[in-house]
Amino acid sequence: TTMALKSMTGFGEGAAAGEGIHVAVEVSSVNRKQLDINVNLPRNLVTLDAQVQNMVRAEFTRGRVSGIVRVENADGSAGAVKIDAKLAGQYVEGIRKTAAKLKLADDLGAETIARLPGVVTVEQENLDAGHVSTLLEQALGKALRGLAKMRAAEGKALEKDLRERLALLDGMVKTVAKLAPTVAVGYREKLFQRLEEAGLQELAADERIVKEIALFADRSDISEELTRLKSHLEQTRLLLRSPEPVGRTLDFLCQELFREINTVGSKANEVEITRVVVAFKTELERIREQVQNIE
């Protein structure tokens, strides 16, 4: 099947419930060279991390995928509240000593103590990891499908943009190809004009001058570069329909296009061609920015 490009940015969410618990998952992704997975699980369910990793890997090959998994009791509470009275006592003692030392009012209330790190925790009693695992698979599966759908939609928009930009580059290569043969001719005319102005017409037939013109024509010949530019652009267009992730290959082709167009600029040192080369590089830079977002 022909498949379109996939972007690396997107968002998805999913939920599943059963036997008194409710699992909600949110995932999002941004561009990265490799696949980088960072999905936060509740502390008492970190054993399910491998399951999360495998499910994400089965779906994506590149991008930073971040997410959060929330597990709540079906009645909406997140579990039982535990209060560490011993820790609270140590806090109060320390804070009172400091307050006395600094001559501050003692305004410790229950609310202040509850806010201190580690005093109040919410724990889910006897969560069955096996049961959570089944619900997690459903919720995460749904979230990842949503994310994949968004990445595909973004990819479609990227592809449309890239095709338009590639058409512009094609046009520029054609313009340079038309201008290229005039470079050596223009050089020859300029040289003869200078010789004439200097009153050295008889030199025009000198074999050294003829040789110099032939050398220049050779040095400024960009037909090979133009052939490679056309070939790279064609390859880029073919890749846009590949079923495989192509982001890295597209990035490499952009670098090759840059190399060739730079050579064209330095070899065919002529005003009109230089103008087209600058425009080509500007457009190519935009393409390269877009390519960074492709899986």
Polypeptide structure, described:
It is a single chain. 59% of the residues lie in helices and 15% in strands. The chain has 295 residues and is α+β, with helices and mostly antiparallel strands. It folds into three domains: 10-78 and 123-153, Ribosomal Protein S5, domain 2, CATH 3.30.230; 83-122, no CATH class; 157-291, no CATH class. The strands form two sheets. A four-stranded mixed sheet has the order 1-2-4-3. The mean pLDDT is 89.
In which range does the helix fraction lie?
55-70%
Distance between the termini: 18 Å
Q: What general form does the structure show?
A: elongated
Tell me, rounded to a whole number, the average pLDDT.
89
How does the helix and strand content classify structurally? alpha+beta
Return the string of H and E elements: EEEHEEHHEHHHHH
Q: DSSP strand (E) fraction?
A: 5-15%
Number of helical segments?
8
Question: How is this fold's topology laid out?
Answer:
Elements lengths: L9 E9 L2 E10 L4 E6 L8 H11 L3 E11 L6 E4 L1 H17 L8 H6 L4 E4 L5 H69 L9 H13 L3 H17 L7 H21 L3 H21 L4
Parallel strand pairs: 3-4
Antiparallel strand pairs: 1-2, 2-4, 5-6
Helix pairs in contact: 1-4, 4-5, 4-6, 4-8, 6-7, 7-8
